[in-house]
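Re: that backbone. Tokens:
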């Protein structure tokens, strides 16, 4: 599995993380279903944007990109994204890119333009446009584009190797192709095939990478090897923020760090960005981030409650019927094109029904353990519950407060009961009144 990684010229934004979280979910699900996954994610550390950024800050390219690479790894850790097996950096694999371009020249797919750069001749590759479904027959022969990013309507011969120009400053390699640097698209062909072979199974990325980036990867790789490049392409749809395309000028542009600085929980951010099916556009709002936090808390409280079950009665098979139903529905939904929306709906139905049984004291200790095990295996896929400890005993003074409030409540002294509840909240203890009496947990900080 190859996933296009970040361009390390800035902090990654939540649109980037929607892609990385969809890919994390896909990978976790494949592993859950017994597949062995070799995951490669590149870091784009040489392209038009990184060069410009390093020049603006007047630091060497590597120093500039190291800073954002480090930030990226901190961010994915905060979001509980499982690391890839390999993170190749484009600047470490220039020799592989040069070799690939040489093969394309030998095979007749690449040529040198008057500007000294080497271009890919899309007219030589009859399948060009098959991924993004574009027709190229109206193109003017030999029309060329030198930037890394351009629109479908501008499909034309693109740069594989960019001859050095004064704007590149210190950034160049002296190679058999001349003094210059690789184009963005050849980087991903070289990096993916180095680690995964000429044909591999899964390639993912955001839908905005479909053209020209992935289209060009196919053209380069298949023209060089004569083999199918990728068996399955998966692209996640766009992220909107408060109903609009995210843009710095609209004040709706968020990096992960922006949200953490506002006090949002990274696990809630993970849950929210992952909870919409990848083929659907997703509208991110701060309000939905609040409800995501509530959803994660519901799951954690449920698991905590299962830990606490002592001597309930057997459920007369109700638990085993519910768990089988959940396993079939959760698994069946994710097997169906990673339909996380339906899978999560089934999970919350299950939590509600088991909570009802718990309210009636109709879950035995061994059934609770069984349900707890199922929740843990589901969380290996979702990655949002984490380790929920059985609560350690309360310090005596806090326990005395809980008892005092129970007493007040039983004497229907609601005012005092509410005051004690508020007092406990300031100490980070959250109370829940259930039919079996009061339960408590520590507030997540
Ligand atoms: Zn890529």
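Recovered sequence:
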């Amino acid at each position: 599995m190859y996933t296009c990684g970040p361009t390390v010229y800035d902090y990654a934004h939540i649109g980037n993380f929607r892609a990385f979280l969809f890919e994390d979910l896909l990978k976790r699900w494949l592993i859950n279903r017994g597949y062995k996954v070799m995951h490669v994610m590149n870091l784009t550390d040489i392209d038009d944007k990184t060069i410009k950024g390093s020049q603006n800050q007047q630091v060497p390219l590597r120093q500039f990109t190291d800073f954002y690479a480090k930030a990226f790894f901190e961010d994915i850790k905060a979001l509980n994204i499982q690391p890839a097996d390999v993170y190749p950096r484009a600047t470490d694999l220039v020799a592989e890119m040069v070799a690939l371009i040489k093969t394309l020249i030998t095979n007749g797919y690449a040529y040198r333009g008057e500007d000294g750069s080497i271009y890919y001749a899309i007219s030589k590759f009859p399948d060009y446009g098959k991924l993004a479904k574009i027709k190229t027959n109206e193109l003017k022969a030999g029309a060329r584009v030198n930037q890394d990013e351009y629109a479908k309507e501008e499909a034309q011969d693109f740069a594989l190797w960019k001859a050095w120009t004064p704007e590149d400053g210190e950034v160049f390699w002296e190679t058999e192709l001349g003094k210059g640097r690789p184009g963005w698209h050849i980087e991903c062909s070289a990096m993916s095939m180095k680690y995964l072979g000429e044909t591999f199974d899964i390639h993912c990325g955001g839908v905005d990478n479909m053209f020209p980036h992935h289209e060009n990867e196919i053209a380069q790789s298949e023209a060089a090897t004569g083999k199918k490049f990728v068996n399955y392409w998966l692209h996640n749809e766009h992220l909107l923020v408060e109903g609009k395309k995210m843009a710095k000028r609209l004040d709706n542009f968020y990096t992960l760090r922006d949200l953490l600085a506002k006090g949002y929980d990274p696990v809630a951010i993970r849950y929210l960005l992952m909870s919409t099916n990848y083929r659907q556009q997703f509208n991110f709002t701060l309000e939905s981030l609040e409800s995501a936090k509530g959803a994660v808390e519901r799951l954690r409280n449920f698991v905590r409650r299962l830990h606490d079950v002592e001597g309930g009665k057997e459920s007369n098979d109700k638990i085993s019927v519910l768990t089988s139903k959940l396993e079939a529905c959760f698994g069946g939904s994710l097997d169906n094109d990673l339909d996380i929306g339906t899978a999560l709906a089934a999970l919350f139905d299950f939590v509600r029904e088991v909570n009802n049984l718990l309210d009636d004291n109709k879950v035995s200790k061994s059934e609770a353990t069984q349900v707890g095990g199922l929740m843990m295996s589901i969380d290996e896929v979702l990655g949002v519950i984490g380790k929920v400890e059985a609560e350690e005993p309360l310090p005596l003074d806090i326990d005395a407060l809980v008892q005092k409030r129970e007493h007040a409540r039983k004497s229907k002294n609601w005012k005092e009961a509410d005051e004690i509840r508020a007092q406990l909240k300031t100490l980070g203890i959250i109370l829940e009144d259930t039919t079996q009496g009061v339960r408590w947990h520590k507030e997540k900080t």
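The chain has 14 helices and 15 strands. The first strand starts at residue 2 and ends at 3.
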